[in-house]
Design goal:
The complex is a heterotrimer of chains A (443), B (286) and C (304). Chain A is an alpha/beta fold and 443 residues long. Chain A is 43% helix and 13% strand. Chain A has two domains: 208 residues, D-Maltodextrin-Binding Protein, domain 2, CATH 3.40.190; 208 residues, D-Maltodextrin-Binding Protein, domain 2. The longest helix of chain B has 32 residues. Chain B folds into two domains: 59 residues, no CATH class; 170 residues, MetI-like fold, CATH 1.10.3720.10. With 304 residues, chain C is mainly alpha-helical. In chain C, strand 1 and strand 2 form a beta hairpin. The chains are: A alpha/beta (443), B mainly alpha (286), C mainly alpha (304). Chains B and C meet through helix 1, helix 2, helix 5, helix 6 and helix 7 of B and helix 1, helix 2, helix 4, helix 5 and helix 6 of C.
Chain lengths: 443, 286, 304
């Protein structure tokens, strides 16, 4: 008798406990007790800790969601270590011990298709997790393109959008064009031919139009008409050839340099005496990378402005995939829903972390809101521009080999720009380097 | 005595000494300059670092350090792991390499020449060559996230062995060992109590080299260590460098480099006494 | 090597030689020989990762070797490696020997020796990746080196150090020199400390000059260590990887003129290309072996 009463109380308290925690706990009880997450930095962990209801941090690499222990495995990206680790673990995931099975892993756009569109299936289709297309309707299309396989099946989601804009130096615009209004500037950079003509105009006043040829690379490469690899053959798209020709002309005319992104020579334009007219970048670049905290920088003076520029593009972003073989599909789906479809949580992310989130209504609301004006841009609110940019990006022409092809193409063409090789020689070197990385390809 | 000799020499001793000092000061500058640049950069904020190098230190050293220690990277655990791995690697590697060198140097047995040649041959195999097979082996042995595959293989270190063997050739007379035998010392005891002390300078040299290369090793640990609780400093540094742009902070990266180098400088200064202090004096000269 | 064991009693000690070899060989067989054997075995197969699956293994005989040897690039990478090694090694051995001679010369009586000897190894404590970051900062187009050269009026435009074959090779060699000359000096010093100082004193009494002492006493007695330095530096040089890899971001640019053999090998490791990487490893092993034998023969002929 006593026993019965006790167990009755326990059941009641369990039910009440469940009501407090999100609904997933019901099913999750039957699922794995450990949620294993593979990633390469702390970003996603911070998002989960701060914004997922019910996540409790235990220590730096463990957490708890209800009864489930969350284990983080963080492998840095240097020397390709992160992907090497995934390559070893994921194909064997279904046969791994229940507690060491990978449940969720993160990828970047450049190599997302390698895992999403692989011969060996290592990701669970989002639909199989019970997440419907309607739930994802507010996400930007390009964020879905990145993680859609060859058969049109969506296999990942992202909470971020990283559309970019052209960020211009207002002082330079006033000096050269006589006006720093976005409309004036946009007219000067509306397409690549206008952009290149403007470069000569800026040169006369002593300004480089961009800091380096690598600044414009992703703007061209996001707008190709065909993927890098077609039927096992490497193909250089017309827009990539255009990047080479345009860049070579700029370098030869002394209107830009061949410096690497993030190098000292690249970032010198963050200051007035660096004499750089514009950069291409998303919100995070403006907010966190342009030395706004340093006295004397253009950002510190609020001296930048934003326009859409010649073509739409994106830069960065992290995608969430469910690993095939996961024993926590319900919990994984709930995390995906919370972070990438829940407008309330996503608005919180915008406020707390300045992420541009992957949610159209949330971002469009913020675009109307004056409190989202960027001091770095002299009080301009560029979010509407970002929203428009995000809609324009078309990433249907990605391939499994993008990371290697993009890296090697920029590296090889640098030789051409600097006069160490002809275009043909540089192109041969590009082909050679890509085939070394992917022996299955031809050219 | 010196004054007499001086006249016969091509250059006066004073001139030679002056040249020596000038060259040495230049070399000291070349060696220490990098530490100065590192420390200067560790004092600059993330924004200031985008300006390129300036020789004047800034004021953000303690900000960078405190960001580093209050961040999510477990630097102190990393320090502990690095110390454990590098110390054990250095000790095991030099001890067993001395033993192997001693086996070849002091004894005669069939196939000795072959063994020596064999070890010299394997010294020529680039370490990257066996890396893929090594990782597979470690995974097969279920030794991931374990220090064993980072420490134990150092017992078979052909380069260390070869140096100690060469050193013994010029500095370890066999007569000494004979004498010990006559005194009734066992072979193992002779090795530990007579040979090892005589080899101190050479062992110290190799200990430093092994310690430093283990301390700075990134390639193998990155493939074997995945849990934060076992990661070493170079892996944590790489994690810091692959941070998302929100947190990416070169000031912290430089602070972490300075923090990672300090302990190894201390170990070096301790061990270097054995090399540069002239400890070699002793039984050898007799 | 002592081959004149005239004492018969010594024979029973000799089993200890074998016992002392056990730890080395047990560890070697487990952790290196097994992976090595698979490397050689793999060199005869087409076997690489394509995406997440593997192509092969398909037996191709000497196909991988033929491919490597036929396209002629291997020779270029070998030449690059040797050029950059020599550019770093020659100044390294000269500086190390001069420093060694000064430190061991009793008549010079240098002060602060302890300090000088300690400082020279310090650059080796900075990891290559961190060192490269400093090089990028200092040698960038707008960096301090270019600023100094321009204010001296030596150049009018910033010099692009990493975009010119010989300056890029020089930077690689310079960084290798900085990182390793202290190491070489310490090795030589440790050897010199083993030399009986009474030999120097006696020579000085006999009126030998510093140069004579160096060539007649120091160098011959240092021979075993010098051979060691030569051989290990050659091997290390052939295995040159981290410095050019990091400085050129793995590209070996300009136009692969700084691409070394191991950087090339590393390109094949990227996609787990066991076949090509295996064949390249075996070829490298043969090259290293031949060169080392030449060095051994060369130094051995001076012995008597």
């Amino acid at each position: 008798m006593m026993k019965k009463v006790l167990s009755g109380i326990m059941v009641a308290s369990m039910i009440m406990g469940m009501a407090a925690v999100p609904a997933m706990a019901e099913d999750a009880a039957a699922e794995g007790s450990v949620l294993n997450i593979q990633c390469w930095n702390e970003e996603f962990k911070t998002r989960l800790t701060d914004h997922y209801p019910g996540y409790e941090e235990v220590d730096a690499t463990t957490g708890k969601i209800g009864d489930v222990t969350v284990k983080w495995t963080i492998t840095p990206t240097d020397d390709n270590a992160y992907q090497n680790n995934l390559d070893t673990v994921l194909p064997e995931n279904e046969n791994a011990d229940a507690d060491s099975k990978v449940d969720l892993f993160l990828v970047e756009a450049d190599y997302a298709l390698k895992y999403v569109n692989s011969d060996v299936e290592v990701t669970v289709p989002i639909a199989d997790l019970g997440i419907t297309d309607e739930e994802l309707a507010n996400q930007y299309q390009y964020t879905k393109d990145v993680v859609t396989d060859g058969n049109g099946v969506l296999r990942g989601v992202s909470w971020q959008g990283c559309p970019g804009v052209l960020i211009y130096n207002r002082e330079a615009a006033k000096e050269v064009f006589g006006d720093d209004a976005p409309e004036t500037v946009q007219a000067k950079v509306a397409d690549w031919d206008t952009f290149n003509a403007t470069a000569a105009e800026l040169k006369e006043a002593g300004y480089n139009i961009v800091s380096t040829v690598n600044d414009t690379y992703r703007v061209y490469s996001n707008n190709v008409s065909a993927p890098w690899v077609q039927d096992g053959k490497i193909v250089v798209d017309d827009n990539m050839k255009k990047w080479v020709d345009d860049s070579k002309a700029l370098v030869d005319a002394g209107e830009t340099t061949t410096a690497e992104l993030w190098s000292d020579d690249w970032s010198k334009g963050f200051y007035p005496d660096g004499k750089v007219f514009c950069y291409f970048g998303p919100a995070w670049l403006i907010n966190f990378s342009m030395a706004a905290d340093t006295e004397g920088s253009i950002a510190n003076l609020g001296g930048w402005g934003a326009v859409e520029g010649p073509q739409g593009f994106y830069w960065g972003g992290t995608w969430i995939c469910a690993a095939k073989g996961t024993d926590n599909p319900t919990l994984v789906a709930d995390i995906m829903r919370a972070l990438t479809t829940n407008e309330e949580i996503m608005t919180d992310i915008v406020k707390a972390d300045s992420d541009f989130v992957n949610n159209k209504p949330a971002m469009e609301a913020a675009a109307e809101d004056e409190s989202f004006a960027f001091p770095i841009l002299g009080g301009q609110n560029p979010l509407a521009m970002f929203c428009a940019g995000a809609d324009k990006i078309d990433l249907s022409n990605m391939s499994n080999y993008d990371q290697g092809c993009n890296e090697e193409f920029q590296a090889a063409m640098k030789n051409y720009f600097e006069g160490n090789a002809t275009y043909e020689e540089a192109l041969d070197q590009f082909y050679k380097a890509v085939v070394e990385k992917y022996p299955e390809l031809t050219y | 005595m010196n004054n007499q000799n001086e006249k016969e020499k091509g250059l006066g001793i004073g001139v030679r000494r002056a040249i020596a000092y000038i060259v040495l000061i230049f070399i000291v500058f070349l060696c220490l300059f990098w530490f100065y640049v590192l420390i200067v950069n560790a004092t600059r904020s993330k924004g200031e670092l985008t300006r390129g190098f300036t020789p004047i230190p800034s004021t953000h050293f303690f900000d960078n350090m405190s960001n580093l220690f209050h961040g999510t990277i477990p630097v102190l655990t990393g320090l502990r792991n690095s110390v454990i791995i590098a110390a054990f690697t250095a000790i095991l590697s030099t001890y067993f390499s001395t033993m192997t060198a001693y086996a070849i140097h002091a004894y005669d047995f069939r196939g000795k020449k072959f063994v020596f040649t064999f070890i010299l041959m394997i010294m020529m195999i680039p370490t990257q060559v066996t890396a893929l097979g090594f990782i597979k082996l470690v995974q097969g042995m279920k030794l991931e996230d374990n220090f064993v595959p980072l420490i134990v293989p150092a017992i078979a270190a052909p380069v260390t062995f070869y140096y100690l063997k060469q050193y013994m050739e010029s500095n370890l007379p066999l007569s000494l060992i004979e004498a010990a035998r006559i005194d009734g010392s066992g072979e193992f005891h002779t090795f530990n109590s007579i040979v090892l002390p005589l080899m101190k300078p050479a062992i110290a040299v190799q200990m430093i080299f092994t310690f430093v290369s283990s301390w700075n090793n990134y390639f193998t640990p990155a493939l074997i260590l995945h849990k934060d609780s076992v990661k070493t400093l170079p892996i944590l540094l790489a994690t810091l460098r692959s941070a998302d742009f929100l947190k990416f902070d070169m000031g912290q990266v430089y602070a972490m480099i300075v923090f990672s180098i300090l302990p190894v400088v201390v170990v070096y200064l301790i061990l270097s006494r054995f090399i540069v202090g002239g400890v070699a004096a002793g039984g050898v000269k007799g | 090597m002592n081959r004149s064991v005239n004492n018969k009693k010594a024979v029973r000690y000799n089993k200890w030689g074998l016992i002392f070899l056990i730890p080395f060989f047990v560890v070697y067989v487990i952790f290196q020989l097994i992976p090595l054997a698979t490397t050689i075995y793999n060199s005869f197969f087409e076997h690489y990762r394509s995406g997440l699956s593997f192509v092969g293994p398909n037996f191709v005989g000497f196909g991988n070797y033929a491919k490597l040897l036929s396209d002629g690039d291997l020779g270029i990478y070998f030449k690059n490696t040797m050029i950059m090694w020599i550019m770093g090694f020659v100044p390294q051995i000269i500086v190390s020997l001069i420093l060694g001679a000064w430190f061991s010369d009793p008549s010079l009586r240098l002060r602060f020796q302890q300090f000088f000897k300690t400082v020279i190894y310090l650059p080796n404590l900075i990891m290559a990746a961190a060192f490269a970051m400093l090089f990028f900062t200092l040698f960038s187009d707008g960096g301090p080196i270019n600023n100094i050269l321009m204010s001296l009026g030596w150049i009018s435009q910033p010099f692009k150090f990493m975009s010119n074959t010989w300056s890029a090779r020089t930077l690689v060699a310079f960084m290798n020199f900085l990182m390793w000359f202290g190491n070489t000096t310490i090795l030589l010093l440790a050897g010199m400390l083993g030399i009986d100082t009474s030999l120097f004193e006696a020579a000085e009494v006999d009126g030998a000059t510093a140069t004579q002492i160096f060539f007649k006493i120091t160098l011959p007695l240092l021979r075993p260590i010098l051979v060691y330095v030569m051989v290990t530096s050659l091997i290390g040089g052939l295995q040159m990887f981290d410095v050019p890899q990091i400085l050129t971001n793995g590209s070996g640019d300009p136009m692969r003129s700084t691409m070394t053999l191991i950087m090339f090998l590393n390109k094949h490791l990227f996609n787990r290309n066991y076949g090509m990487a295996g064949a390249l490893s075996v070829l490298m092993f043969i090259i290293t072996g031949v060169l080392s034998i030449i060095v051994f023969k060369f130094t051995a002929s001076n012995e008597k």
